[in-house]
Design goal:
CATH class of the largest domain: Alpha Beta
CATH superfamily of the largest domain: Response regulator
Largest sheet: 6 strands, mixed
Number of helices: 9
GO molecular function: DNA-binding transcription factor activity; transcription cis-regulatory region binding
Domain Transcriptional regulator LacI/GalR-like sensor: 139-300
Radius of gyration: 21 Å
InterPro entries: LacI/GalR-like_sensor (IPR046335), Peripla_BP_I (IPR028082)
Helix content: 40-55%
Organism: Pelagibacterium lentulum
Structural class: alpha/beta
CATH architecture of the largest domain: 3-Layer(aba) Sandwich
Keywords: DNA-binding, Repressor, Transcription, Transcription regulation
Distance between the termini: 60 Å
Number of strands: 12
Length: 304
């Protein structure tokens, strides 16, 4: 089914849903999670679940395959009786996925997206300021005495990658520093992606003293791969992650990272959706931005 046909058909489903919406609520919501087995997504979902349970709402959760977002949302809204939808978009949302959400959104049933970057869709959303977070990572490493800093990043198609890289560049520019092109290490938001970035790091003749990784999983993969070659963190290279997943504090060395309030993000997403379901006229704010802060641990060394 072409995107245009799917959207047209879905709008028909949505119009039917809207007609039935006022008659009877199902007290059920659909949660679309791209990788519910991932620690990051499970923490987001925990917040959604706890808020839903407190309001006596049931949850139907679906886990689309890569590229399957439009078919999954279409089929679920066609067959499932739900009052609203939460999309745990996170790292897996590409520009195409954002475009799809924009086309699908009509308000019936309401959709709340946990997007990674403001301004991509008009769908109600819970997000963080990724550009500022990237800036905080860069500034921390600079304050710790580092000048040669690399960034291991995720896929180009993801807005979150671009935002974090822009913030990192801004911190470097404010300090009068430039980032060498070879210090942008392509990897991904996964442990294998971090290991790939580590191989790129090892191939450099003039290695950076610090690396800002795209997320905690990639940072752990990066450090694990370096250890196989006798490269020590933080003695030989400092590493900063992103997300502050539960394993970050348990890893050796404990990972310096940017903390996302993941469970609170899930809770806020469900609260916003409930407001849109039960009393949409009273909802004043449909874009909620939550703060991010740096957690210093043991993976960054201060240079003299």
């Amino acid at each position: 089914m072409r995107v245009e046909e799917a959207v047209e058909a879905l709008h028909y489903v949505q119009s039917e849903t809207a007609r039935n919406f006022k008659m009877q609520r199902a007290h059920s919501v659909l949660v679309v999670a791209h990788d519910i087995g991932n620690i990051y997504y499970s923490e987001l979902f925990r917040g959604v679940q706890r808020r839903a349970e407190a309001s006596n709402y049931a949850i139907t959760i679906t886990n689309p395959s890569p590229g399957g977002t439009k078919e999954l949302i279409f089929n679920q809204l066609r067959t499932a009786k739900v009052d609203g939808v939460i999309v745990l978009s996170g790292y897996e949302m590409s520009d195409d996925d954002y475009d799809l959400l924009e086309k699908l959104y009509s308000g019936h049933p309401p959709i709340v997206a946990m997007c990674e970057e403001r301004g991509h869709v008009r769908v109600p959303q819970i997000l963080i300021d990724n550009e500022h977070a990237g800036y905080l990572a860069g500034r921390h490493l600079i304050e710790m005495g580092h000048r040669k800093i690399a960034h291991a990043y995720g896929p180009h198609r993801m807005p979150v990658r671009r935002a974090r890289a822009n913030g990192f560049r801004r911190a470097m520019a404010e300090a009068g520093l430039t980032v060498r092109e070879e210090y942008f290490l392509e990897g991904g938001f996964s442990s294998p992606g971090g290991r790939a970035a580590a191989q790129s790091y090892l191939s450099l003749k003039d290695r950076p003293t610090a690396v800002f990784c795209g997320n905690d999983e990639s940072a752990m993969g990066f450090m694990s791969q370096l250890s196989k070659y006798g490269v020590s963190v933080p003695e030989d290279v400092s590493v900063v992650g992103f997300d502050d997943i539960v394993l970050a504090d348990c890893y050796i060395p404990a990972l310096t990272t940017l903390h996302q309030p993941k469970e609170e993000m899930g809770r806020q997403a469900m609260s916003l959706l409930l407001g849109l379901i039960e009393s949409p006229a009273d909802v004043q704010q449909t874009i909620v931005e939550l703060p991010v802060h740096l957690i210093p641990r043991d993976s960054v060394k201060r240079l003299k």
